[in-house]
Specification:
Helix content is 35%, strand content 21%. The chain has 251 residues and is an alpha+beta fold. 33% of the residues are buried.
């Protein structure tokens, strides 16, 4: 049974949301805004063009954009898969649905210019936690590993947990992990770097990314290791690496 949520909007309704809701952030492809108790991730081009033009032109902007290339902002099958499997996944909030269009050319009435995401209010980025708060960091990393194992059990792999600046400087890092009350929440659970269904092969890359995060903390806390980044690809190896970090910090 399909339980994916669908937010069906006319061009004017789309414009009204874009104009009046708060922007949370920007990605390479999408702009994230608030919407009631959720978030919407909207195609960057459409967001910008509609935001910067009169309401009168909204329909034309949309129809012109899809005139020669009718494609969804995100993979509908992926979003449907994730929203339907949410009942089995307890530790990570997955995308909830898609935006579709109405009152436009019939060829694009079912095209999706954006997706619906859960809103993690009052959460903090993991990389922003003070390093001297290591007890909380260790608790969060332990819970994060449990979340990854649950994703693996449901054949979901988030392969973009950690990224670094242009010069790969460790201090210029970004984790796709938020936290609140020592509980982590994995974000960016859609798109190319999320492998599910027919695209799922293994969780090797997800554990590689997680271990990069752990090795970052090895570095910050001055813990020596001969582990080469990118060589750890399983839950058990990740657990052992984290266990050593916990042991070293308790000494």
């Amino acid at each position: 049974m399909i339980i994916m949520e669908e937010l069906r909007l006319s061009p004017l309704e789309f414009k009204n949301i874009i104009d009046h809701e708060s922007i949370i952030g920007h990605g390479n492809f999408g702009t994230i805004i608030t919407y009631k108790d959720k978030l919407l991730k909207i195609d960057n081009y459409l967001f910008s063009k509609i935001k910067n033009n009169n309401s009168y032109y909204s329909k034309k902007i949309i129809e012109d954009y899809y005139k020669n290339d009718i494609r969804d902002f995100d993979d509908k099958k992926q979003i449907e898969y994730l929203s339907n499997i949410q009942k089995k996944v307890k530790l990570t909030k997955l995308p909830e649905g898609i935006i579709t269009l109405k009152e436009v050319d019939s060829k694009i009435m079912n095209v999706s210019p954006g997706i619906i995401l859960p809103y993690h209010k009052e959460h903090q980025k993991l990389e922003k936690l003070p390093l001297d708060n290591y007890k909380s960091i260790l608790i969060i990393l332990r819970k994060l590993l449990l979340s990854l194992r649950e994703l693996e059990e449901n054949k979901i792999s988030q392969e973009d947990l950690a990224s670094y600046g242009e010069d790969c400087v460790i201090y210029d890092r970004k984790y796709n992990v938020l936290c609140k009350n020592e509980t982590p929440e994995i974000i960016d659970m859609d798109g190319f770097y999320v492998k599910v269904g027919d695209n799922f092969v293994s969780c090797d890359n997800m554990y590689r990314e997680f271990c990069n995060i752990i090795l970052d903390y090895y570095y910050f806390y001055g813990i020596k290791s001969n582990i080469i980044r990118g060589t750890i690809t399983s839950y058990d190896e990740s657990f052992a690496l984290l266990k050593r970090l916990e042991h070293e910090k308790k000494r």
